[in-house]
Amino acid sequence: MAGTPIIVAEDVTKRFGTHQVLTRVSLPVMERDVVCIVGPSGSGKTTLLRCFALLEKPSEGRIVMQDTTISTPEPDRQTRAAARAVRSDIGMVFQHFNLWPHMSVLENLIEAPLRVKRMPRDEAVAVAEKLLAKVDLSDKRDAYPARLSGGQQQRVAIARALAMSPKVLLFDEATSALDPELRREVLMVMRQLAREGMTMLVVTHEMGFARHVGTRTVFMDRGEIVEAAPGAAFFDAPKTERAKRFLQQFE
Ligand code: ADP
């Protein structure tokens, strides 16, 4: 694994009450990595991603970004300050888009750069317009989310995440809520980002994407990482019975 780790989960265990959903998960994400997390429903994929996104705190273990601890079970002042400092470096794209419905597409894109980064409005608009062109939605600049298809809304959500210039982009089943033909347009945008060298952590049921675009595939089952291998290698030669059984359903 060459390169520099951007963000790392170290020995992360997560419990909700007495229900343990992650058990000592360690996962480094290197610069320009496209790590795809696959596995059966309920295996803890989303919870792990939410720990990386600082939306959940680990019960044990920690999240480290570029050598700085940003999340622990009981963060001290230093860790909380470090988390605040890097929050906008971690972008997240959700299954259900989560656009602000009362804002136009452009307003959705400039909101965080204006408020969080204190970017001048002209500059934020220029960045937003460039990103809308990138996801092929320049003509929807002034539309409201409700008027867009699911695929278009998800492309806006990706552009919105990119507007903060994140160092890593997390995708939580970004295509699961979409019909097959709309999935393709979102996957094409994700593939393009991967080509450009964006560091990505992708929870997905899209085995084609994991195989062909992912640099590494991580297979989770019952809260543990059971296997991790370069994208295609996991699919061509799964090592464990659990992984083989999981892959059978996609044959
Ligand atoms: P996956 O993404 O692999 O489907 P999840 O991370 O969503 O798995 O869920 C793993 C387990 O954690 C499931 O049993 C789920 O019910 C449980 N879980 C997830 N979030 C919560 C929560 N906020 N409170 C209680 N249990 C949760």
Automatic annotation (TrEMBL):
UniProt keyword annotations, A-Z: Amino-acid transport, ATP-binding, Cell membrane, Membrane, Nucleotide-binding, Transport
PROSITE patterns: ABC_TRANSPORTER_1, ABC_TRANSPORTER_2
Recorded topology in the membrane: Peripheral membrane protein
Positions of the ABC transporter domain: 7-247
InterPro entries: AAA+_ATPase (IPR003593), ABC_ATPase_HisP-typ (IPR030679), ABC_transporter-like_ATP-bd (IPR003439), ABC_transporter-like_CS (IPR017871), MetN_ABC_transporter-like (IPR050086), P-loop_NTPase (IPR027417)
Record flagged with keyword Electron transport: no
Major localization class: membrane
Similarity comment: Belongs to the ABC transporter superfamily.
Protein name per its UniProtKB record: L-cystine ABC transporter ATP-binding protein YecC
Source organism of the structure: Reyranella soli
